[in-house]
Amino acid sequence: MPINPTPKKSLRLLFVSNPIGPLGSGLGGGVELTLRNIATEQIRRGHSLTIVATKGSTAWGMPLVEIAGNPQISAQTQGRDAPIIIPASSVLANMWDYARQVQTDYDLIVNFAYDWLPFYLTPFLTIPVAHLVSMGSLTEAMDGIIEQVVTQFPGTIGVHSLAQAETFSFANRCRCVKNGIDLSFYDFCAEPAPWIGWVGRIAPEKGLQDAVAASELTGIPLKIMGFLQDELYWQQILQDYPNAPVQYEGFLSTDELQKRLRQCRALLMTPRWVEAFGNVAIEALACGVPVIAYRRGGPAEIVEDGKSGFLVEPDSVERLVDALEKLDTIDRHACRQRVEAEYSNQAMGDRMEQWFSDICSKVNKL
Ligand code: HBI
Fold first, then answer.
1. pLDDT grade, residue 365 (50/70/90)?
2. What average pLDDT score do residues 55-67 get?
3. Boundaries of each Glycosyl transferase family domain copy (predicted)?
4. Which of 21, 32, 245, 275 is close enough to 221 for a disulfide, judged by CB 3.0 to 4.6 Å?
5. 71 burial type by CB count under 10 A (0-12 exposed, 13-18 middle, 19+ buried)
6. pTM summary value
7. Measured at the alpha carbon of residue 85, what is the angle toward residues 132 and 159, in degrees to the nearest 5?
8. What CATH superfamily classification does 12-180+345-365 receive?
């Protein structure tokens, strides 16, 4: 008689979003897609879940509590010695005061904010908190408070890649959950259009200028998609590369994004910083689009060099150009298969469900 697998306890989850803008605005960066995908999949698996987010957020039909207040400054614009800054009527403080008030209705809080306060408050709360850290090391204050939490609550710090974990002194105490997307949103494209793509927040750490330079050198049209965060940076690029055949397509919904992304011959990823993961890499691969990425950060753990794209010497436009010339050696089906195997909502859902139940059971074991 087969032993029934122990039914996973249905968890009551409270997802607290990041405090830099409403879900669906693009201000929240990759966290918006990450939170949406994890939440959708955990509900599909029978867990109950509420999302706490800034007023004006969309929760794509999932239970949502909107909180008013002033946003946090973007952490990646701060220097390493930046002090902790919390504005008056802070939406971050208000979100976590709400979480404190309702915590006994839940088994686990999941924190998506890269901010000091949620980590500092963790010991003050009576239920466990899983912290999904969205970026690599940026400031001493954040490194310190995250290390405090991983020491006092082992196993509760989640990261998206080993490269991201390595930016912290406590790398080996982080749980790498990678990331995932709902493949049903991405349609495979076997015959690309004659252009390449670049997707991301338009800001210095994303290194857009290198992709534009490669477009100007090769004459291959470049479609740029993403949130225009730094206008001056963008204007400077247009001045520096007046002849590059580039087209800014705006900040797009997932559906509009994949309609353009799937037609690309390749996606260029040119991060200047250690990209924690690189959601856009798996979005492109899901459509069959090879990824040409600097061998740096999360994308270097996603792209199989020569199979689902190319990994090139960081910050080298020449190497980007060389890789573009080898594109025809890549089988677009191998790109889709990479995501199906490792980065589907199901694969990510398994990793997250296991992480959540490990944290909750550890509480039971105490
Ligand atoms: N800055 N202060 C702060 N808090 C965040 O949660 C945060 C951020 N900057 C960027 C960001 N989150 C997201 O774009 C991540 O996906 C990178």
1. very low
2. 97
3. 196-327
4. 245
5. middle
6. 0.91
7. 15
8. Glycogen Phosphorylase B; (3.40.50.2000)
CA of 239 to the centre of ligand 1 (A): 29
Q: How far does residue 33's CA lie from ligand 1's centre (Å)? A: 13
CA atoms within 13 A of residue 192's CA, in its CB half-sphere: 27
Question: Which among 17, 20, 23, 280 is the best mutation to test ligand 1's pocket, defined by most ligand atoms within 8 Å of the CB?
Answer: 20
CB atoms within 10 A of CB 105: 11
Q: pLDDT: is 28 or 207 the higher one? A: 207
Domain boundaries, the chain: 12-180+345-365, 183-342
Give the C-alpha separation, 164 to 172, whole Å: 11
Distance between CA atoms of residues 17 and 40, nearest Å? 14
The residue assigned the tokens 């940026």 is 138
- Ligand 1: list residues with CB < 6 Å: 18, 20, 28-31, 72, 74-76, 113-115, 134-135
153-207 pLDDT, tens digit per residue, is 999 999 999 999 999 999 999 999 999 999 999 999 999 999 999 999 899 999 9
Alpha carbons 205 and 202: distance in angstroms, whole number: 9
Class of domain 183-342 (CATH, top level):
alpha beta
> Which residues, listed in sequence order, are joined to residue 132 by a DSSP beta bridge?
158
Q: Atom 10, ligand 1: which residue's CA is nearest?
A: 74
Question: What is the DSSP annotation of 160-219?
Answer: S-HHHHHTSTTGGGSEE----B-GGG----SS--S-EEEES--SGGG-HHHHHHHHHHH-
Report the nearest-CA residue for atom 7 of ligand 1.
114
| Same fold yes or no, 12-180+345-365 and 183-342 | yes
Position 5 confidence tier, pLDDT thresholds 50, 70, 90: low
Tell me, in angstroms, the distance from the centre of ligand 1 to residue 167's CA.
Answer: 16
Ligand 1: residue whose CA is nearest its atom 5: 114
* Residues in contact with 12: Cβ distance below 8 Å, sequence separation at least 6, in sequence order: 47, 48, 49, 105, 106, 107, 108
Contacts of 87 (CB under 8 A, 6+ apart): 70, 71, 72
CA of residue 349 to ligand 1 center, whole Å: 22
Nearest-10 crossing angle of helices 279-286, 254-261: 60
